[in-house]
Design brief:
heterodimer; A: 645 residues; alpha+beta; Phosphatase 2c, domain 1; seven-stranded antiparallel sheet; 14 helices; 44% helix; B: 110 residues; alpha/beta; Transcription Regulator spoIIAA; five-stranded mixed sheet; 4 helices; globular
């Protein structure tokens, strides 16, 4: 699908919206994760501390419960009179009655039991087959030097021994509680120690307690002696074999050594660590002191276990976010398609339109949105374009028709002007040539010549004001009138006056025509002429001299009726040429806006006087074309009539 | 082609300069028609600075004269000289139209 690739609108929408959404999701999830983690860790710390405290108290309570038994015996021995037999019995009963007490001894100071006896220490202990008795005071067992005796004897207070492994009793971890008992001095002096009562206590229940926590709760607990030796630990291989310091030594963890010292010294604490102590996992460790024994109870919460819920929660959120983003992606895709689909159709329609096919239909793209509006505008544009092209076609057709008609008009005009030279082949008295170069299709200039009787040749040179169709229409009317009046044989001034009156009738647009009308008597060479506002005529002699004549006053025809015109006369000698022209010749403009002028025209005529009349005419045409640089503004009309004899 | 219209003594003076030919005559016609249609009856055309006038220009003057005449008004010409005067003379209109040396004289003649 091309849709997914390239820099399409859909791709950009998907990228931007999804990018933004993912960013928002990540920020929210990150923030939630961090805050939740803080809360969980805080709770974990509280839980760990509470748990450690609760367990320490429980241990404390148990230990006190056990400690009370030998303390009670000590009190009895101090206060009551007893015999050897009752003493032994009491010791035996103590072991029998308290299953947690594994063994018990009453060890006397030298001579304190009997002056003759240096040492006396009866010991009862539990075996699978019953309570057994043994006398500890033998020659090769000097109990005075043993820790269980020596330490409480020196300190004068009861004391729990460092736990130890009792190999004889089946590898049970034991701790011995030693209570000193006193004897009042004979002279009522300070009481002095008479001996030590011991109770060997199995610490198996500790392991059980610790193990239960590890089974039931997140994390686990362990118990250390006041020297850092593990008394209880889920890793049984540590028990009595390793201490926190030995681990620090073995695994080269100076930090752990420091922590071990803190755990022994401080009453409680909470740390985060990643150590062999926590199975090389990031974890939190809460510890607290068991007051009576000086042991340290620690609770370990591995971080991953603590945060497991959070991970699960986060995972769930991430999955939800993923599904949400996927849904969003599909929705955006649908929206984008609903936009780009019509857009693509519009693009295709544009391409088709550019190719000239206007038959496009986008009516089925509905909707009030921008795309719908675009489609509708586009539809409207194509309709209007069709209409425009239709109009244009019509207009062009109309123009072509007008142009065609103009061409026909030009042809009619041309065909009306005599254009066959020589016009009177049977006449050898004169030569005649005339030409017209219209500035536009149809001209306002015209010339004419015709015999009004056997001898007189009428010559007309005229210029209608303006150019184009209006001028040419007026020209046709003028020409017809002049010819019809002149044919009657009236003198030129009368012809002009009559034509003027006729042309003035209903001439609202004030068209006017300048006319030079001459009658040439082919027998005598006499010219009779009248000038209605036209430029003068020229006479070119065989020497090349040019003479101007005929500037008799008389207004152009068509403006004001009842105007007088004057008649002039002139004799043409043999070899002389009459030149009639319109101001299109002399007022031809060069690109520098310089007029061609009478002088240049006269000089041109003089130079070409030897040529045939037609060639002379053509020369004038060519020269003026060059002068105007092909940009002819006015009609150029010229007529030559040369007297041959 | 430049046209400056001014007013003096109730008459409008159209001062033309440059070339008045088939190309520029439309503008002059428009100005004159505007004046006539606004009810102006006396119009003086000042040719003092006009360089050239063609037959189309002539026709504009004649048509203006006729139009004003039809409304009992008058078109007066002033400042005719040089080529322009020649064209008027040549076409035989110089004697048919009221021509004055200056616009002031033209207005004074009324």
């Amino acid at each position: 699908m091309r849709f997914f690739f390239g820099r399409s609108l859909a791709t950009r929408m998907v990228l931007y919206v999804l990018g933004g959404t993912v960013l928002v999701f990540v920020i929210i999830m990150g923030d939630t994760y961090l805050s939740s983690r803080d809360i969980i860790l805080q709770q974990a710390r509280q839980n760990a501390t509470d748990l450690a405290d609760a367990m320490a108290q429980k241990i404390e309570k148990n230990m006190w419960g056990i400690a009370k038994v030998p303390q009670a015996l000590a009190g009895f021995i101090e206060i009551c009179d007893w015999t050897d037999k009752t003493l032994l019995k009491l010791i035996q009963r103590q072991v029998e009655d308290h299953p947690e007490i594994y063994g018990s001894a009453v060890a006397f100071e030298p001579g304190a039991y009997h002056p003759n006896q240096r040492s006396y220490a009866p010991y009862f202990y539990r075996t699978p087959i019953g309570i057994r008795f043994v006398q500890l005071a033998t020659d090769n067992y000097d109990y005075f030097m043993m820790n269980w005796y020596h330490v409480p004897r020196t300190l004068g207070v009861a004391d729990w021994s460092e736990p130890y492994l009792d190999e004889g009793g089946g590898g049970v971890i034991m701790s011995t509680y030693s209570v000193p008992f006193f004897q009042t001095g004979p002279e009522g002096g300070a009481p002095h120690i008479r001996g030590i009562i011991t109770a060997d206590v199995s610490l198996d229940w500790l392991s059980e307690l610790i193990a239960r926590i590890s089974r039931e709760k997140t994390g686990y607990a362990f118990l250390m002696s006041e020297f850092g030796t593990f008394i209880a630990h889920p890793r049984t291989e540590y028990i009595m074999r390793e201490s926190v310091f030995s681990l620090a030594e073995t695994y080269k963890e100076p930090e752990l050594r420091k922590l071990g010292r803190d755990m022994i010294r401080k009453p409680e604490g909470f740390v985060g660590l990643n150590s062999i102590l926590t199975d090389n996992k990031p974890a939190f460790l809460a510890y607290t002191r068991v007051q009576s024994t000086g042991w340290c109870l620690a609770v370990v919460f591995p971080k991953d276990e603590l945060l497991n819920d959070l991970y699960v929660l986060n995972q769930r959120a991430a999955i939800m976010a993923g599904i949400g983003i996927l849904l969003l992606f599909l929705i955006i895709l649908l929206i984008a398609r609903s936009i780009t689909g019509p857009l693509r159709r519009i693009v295709q329609a544009t391409a088709r339109m550019a190719g000239g096919d206007l038959e496009i239909d986008l009516k089925d793209i509905r909707g009030r949105d921008e795309v719908g509006r675009l489609a509708r505008s586009f539809d409207r544009m194509s309709t209007e374009l069709k209409q425009y092209i239709c109009d244009l076609t019509e207009a062009t057709a109309a123009r072509e028709r007008i142009e065609g008609e103009l061409n026909i008009a030009a042809q009619i005009q041309k065909s009306i002007l005599p254009c066959c030279f020589p016009p009177f082949p049977d006449r050898d008295e004169f030569d005649l040539y005339a030409m017209m170069q219209p500035a536009r299709e149809v001209a306002g200039d015209f010339y004419d010549f015709f015999f009004i009787d056997d001898d007189r040749l009428a010559l007309i040179m005229a210029d209608v004001s303006g150019k184009g169709i209006p001028a040419s229409l007026f020209m046709m009317v003028s020409r017809t009138m002049l010819k019809s009046i002149a044919t009657r044989g009236e003198p030129p001034d009368v012809v002009l006056a009559e034509a003027n009156n006729l042309l003035c009738q209903g001439n609202d647009t004030v068209m006017f025509v300048t006319v030079f009308l001459a009658y040439y008597d082919v027998g005598t060479g006499r010219l009779t002429y009248a000038n209605g506002g036209h430029n003068p005529a020229l006479l070119l002699d065989s020497e090349g001299h040019v003479r101007e004549f005929g500037q008799k006053k008389g207004a152009a025809l068509g403006f004001m009726p009842d105007l007088p015109y004057q008649v002039g006369e002139m004799d043409l000698k043999t070899g002389e040429t009459l030149v009639l022209y319109t101001d299109g010749v002399t007022e031809a403009l060069s690109p520098e806006e310089e007029m061609f002028g009478e002088e240049r025209f006269a000089a041109l005529l003089g130079r070409n006087r030897g040529l045939a009349l037609e060639d002379q005419g053509n020369r004038v045409g060519i020269t003026l074309d060059e002068f105007q640089a092909g940009n002819q503004f006015d009609d150029i009309t010229i007529m030559f009539m040369k007297r041959k004899r | 082609m430049q046209i400056v219209v001014s007013e003096k003594g109730g008459a409008k003076i159209m001062a033309l300069s440059g070339r008045l030919d088939a190309v520029t005559v439309g503008e002059a016609e428009h100005q004159l028609n505007t004046l006539i249609e606004s009810g102006q009856s006396i119009v003086v055309i000042d040719f003092e600075t006009l360089e050239y006038i063609s037959s189309a220009g002539l026709r504009f003057v004649l048509a203006g004269a006729k139009k004003l005449q039809a409304r009992n008004g008058k078109l007066l010409l002033a400042g005719l000289g040089g080529v322009v005067k020649e064209v008027f003379e040549l076409a035989g209109f110089y004697d048919l139209l009221p021509v004055f040396d200056t616009p002031d004289q033209a207005i004074g003649s009324l």
